[in-house]
Write a structure and sequence with these properties.
This protein is an alpha+beta fold and 682 residues long. It has 4 domains: 66 residues, Helix Hairpins (Orthogonal Bundle); 243 residues, D-amino Acid Aminotransferase, Chain A, domain 1; 107 residues, Beta Barrel (OB fold (Dihydrolipoamide Acetyltransferase, E2P)), CATH 2.40.50.140; 70 residues, Rossmann fold, CATH 3.40.50.10190. The strands form 5 sheets. Strands 12, 13, 14, 15, 16, 17 and 18 form a 7-stranded antiparallel sheet that branches. It has a 5-stranded mixed sheet with strand order 2-11-10-3-9. It has a 4-stranded antiparallel sheet with strand order 5-4-7-8. The radius of gyration is 30 Å and the shape is globular.
Length: 682
């Protein structure tokens, strides 16, 4: 025989042993300890490599290989529950080609028309619910697929899971088993981690981890303090009720019974529609109030499912289409400190580059000194990195099992890395600042911010060019931008005749930016877009803002005492006055639109805007609501008066509005609402 007796076989046997050890270890940490050390994508890669290796070398396969395992051995903390129908795992597809290959395998067994039920793959904890005569009698985890853990008392504290089913007595199944996913909404996860930060406790890495940790508490009272939710996604058994012939029919029954069923279910008739569904939710996954990591594609017809059957670990009639991973593990090379426009010293991670969230990441945020301490990350660690959508990449924490012995803890510096001045942590604040106002790092960032898109929007004046101009003495502050001449740029690297003209045109165009943009560009501490727009609308001229009292500034909507004090301190600074004088001499626009006199038609109302409107930008639509006395929050709640839906609205907002009975109006209805305060179409 060849295989393990050959050199290559020996290597394969060694690798198989190593993979079995790694998969078993990480399987236990994920399912039993609720404390994973590596991202799902890294675990999936290890398990897939092991299954491929065992398939290619059957002589290396062992009984009960962790590559074929479902879940993990149940904890002794909870009573065991034997599942009458095993709770299996799902096979994964990482590309549309994988889905096509799966469908072709099915065609050999169930030729003819096939309908696919597409559902969001919730990143949570699998839970089976058992109802007897309509009453919840047991809730169990997946465990190892055959035996789970009895977590009934803990699940009973989850508000959205009904204690009794809401079916009429003549339709009530004598026994009904439901399976679904227990999860923690993003807002609850963020609130929980804020509490833990304030208490100096270790943070949860992600919502799935926090949901699992909250569920598997010995004391249900602890679980009750955590906001958990549930989506039912499978009717397993319903005795005494005519059995639905389709999966979608089973979900409809669950919904009638009062169980929460995710509204994004779609039943489609071909793989192109499956692909469209997957592509849509990969793009819009961050519109939801909970985390998903893919799409589950199932055969809708239950008879066809029975023909397809299952392998030892997964049904053949379902496939999990996994989105590109947003968490990966990589090496933390160093922790550096950057100096911002206000002097804030922010630690950041220099990483071995890794592809995460669809792009290569080499730098990631560490926020502040306290976060570095709480996360306990050290240069040389293997760390978990997360990048979700357009959010700045963030280091979540270390893989402690991979830490080298004696690796020293990182200490926040006391000296500015740019100017050598002192770094000072202000009393009662989590941030540390360079106190040297002449720090070159601050000066660079203030000018870059002034020229940025959200401020004066001077195209072509980014970090590299500002640094070049500082080096050659062309700039000392933002006011000097308007004194730059063509002859100043001649001969500088990267500046030909056309690039000089383009930059000077961009600088000239910026003189006409709205007053609110100028206020943002001045880097006034605590003053953001909303406050800047409010000041420009309410006072109408930079001179009136400068001469206003703190009380007068604080009375402007979106400002308040803290921002007002900061604005007044900014204008009282002689250094800032020098910059303002340069801007005045340069002819920069100092006037803004005063708030028009409009009727307060929306006093006490809350209007949420979602999607793209034809006649309004999102900011203008929200400003119009506020000008009429209303509020325009970013999420839908019971207090919402109406949801304005434009093109491509957020699905989660519409679903919540439907669930709560909130009127959804179009752009014409929005105009009518602004004018009259009345809802005319919904």
């Amino acid at each position: 025989m060849g295989g393990a007796d050959s050199v290559g076989g020996a290597d394969s046997a060694s690798r198989a042993d190593e993979l079995r050890r790694l998969v078993a270890y990480h399987n236990h940490r994920y399912h039993a300890l609720d404390d994973p050390e590596i991202p799902d994508a890294d675990y999936d890669a290890l398990a897939a490599e092991l299954r491929t290796l065992e398939a290619a070398h059957p002589e290396l396969a062992v009984l009960a290989s962790p590559g074929q395992a479902v879940g993990a051995t149940p904890s002794v903390l909870f009573a065991p529950v034997h599942h009458q129908v095993p709770m299996m795992s799902l096979d994964n597809a990482f590309s549309f080609e994988d889905l096509v290959a799966w469908a072709k395998r099915m065609e050999r067994v169930v030729p003819g028309e096939v309908h696919f039920a597409c559902e969001l793959k919730i990143d949570g904890v699998a839970i089976a619910l058992l109802y007897q005569d309509g009453r919840l009698v047991r809730a169990a985890t997946r465990g190892n697929g055959e035996v789970g853990e009895d977590v009934t008392a803990n699940v009973a504290t989850v508000a959205v899971i009904p204690e009794r089913l809401g079916l009429p007595a003549d339709q009530m199944p004598t026994r009904m088993e439901v399976r679904g996913e227990l999860y923690m909404p993003l807002a609850a996860f963020e609130a929980l981690n804020r509490q833990r930060t304030e208490a100096g406790l270790r943070l949860f890495a992600n919502p799935r981890n926090s949901a699992a940790g909250s569920l598997r508490q010995k004391d249900p009272a602890v679980t009750a303090t955590r906001e958990l939710a549930y989506w039912a996604h499978q009717l397993v058994q319903a005795d005494g009720e005519p059995a639905p012939s389709r999966h979608s029919g089973g979900l409809a029954l669950l919904e009638r019974a009062g169980l929460p069923v995710n509204p994004e279910l779609a039943v489609v008739s071909n793989l192109e529609e499956v692909h469209d569904y997957c592509r849509h939710w990969e793009e819009h996954r961050h519109d939801l109030g909970y985390e998903i990591d893919g799409v589950v594609v199932k055969i809708d017809d239950l008879a066809q499912r029975r023909e397809l059957g299952a392998t030892s670990r997964a049904p053949r009639w379902a496939m999990a289409f996994k989105f590109p991973p947003e968490e990966r593990a990589t090496k933390l090379v160093a922790i550096m400190v950057s100096i911002g426009k206000s002097g804030k010293a922010t630690p950041f991670a220099q990483l071995e580059p890794v592809v995460v969230g669809g792009s290569t990441v080499g730098l990631a945020s560490l926020h502040n000194q306290d976060q570095v301490r709480i996360k306990n990350v050290r240069p040389g660690d293997t760390v978990l990195v997360r990048k979700a959508g357009d959010v700045i990449p963030e280091v979540l924490g270390p893989v402690l099992s991979a830490r080298s012995e004696g690796l020293p803890q990182w200490v926040f510096p006391t000296i500015c890395p740019v100017c050598g001045g002192p770094l000072v942590r202000l009393p009662g604040e989590s941030d540390t600042f360079c106190t040297n106002l002449d720090c070159a790092g601050q000066r660079l960032q203030r000018i870059v911010h002034f020229a940025s898109r959200g401020a004066m929007d001077i195209e072509g004046l980014g970090d590299a060019r500002v640094a070049l101009f500082l080096q050659h003495g062309l700039l000392a502050d933002a006011g000097d931008i308007y004194t730059i001449k063509a002859e100043d740029l001649s001969g500088l690297p990267g500046f030909g005749q056309q690039s000089v003209a383009n930059l000077l045109d961009a600088i000239d165009a910026s003189r006409r930016r709205p007053l609110a943009n100028l206020l943002v560009g001045l880097s006034i501490r605590h003053l953001g877009d909303t406050g800047a727009v409010g000041l420009a609308r309410a006072l109408g001229h930079l001179d009136r803002i400068e001469s206003a009292s703190i009380e007068g500034l604080a009375g402007v909507e979106g400002v308040g005492p803290k921002i007002a004090t900061s604005v007044a301190e900014f204008f009282a600074s002689p250094r800032n006055q020098m910059v303002l004088d340069k801007l005045r001499r340069a002819g920069v626009n100092l006037e803004g639109p005063t708030a028009p006199a409009v009727a307060r038609t929306l006093t006490g109302c809350s209007v949420v805007v979602t999607g793209t409107l034809e006649g309004w930008s999102r900011e203008d639509a929200e400003a119009a609501v506020k000008a009429r006395g209303g509020k325009s929050p970013g999420s839908v709640s019971k207090k919402t008066t109406a949801v304005v839906a434009g093109r491509d609205p957020g699905a989660a907002k519409l679903a919540t509005a439907t669930e709560l009975g909130i009127p959804v109006i179009d752009e014409d209805g929005f105009t009518e609402l602004l004018d009259t305060g009345r809802l005319t179409n919904s």
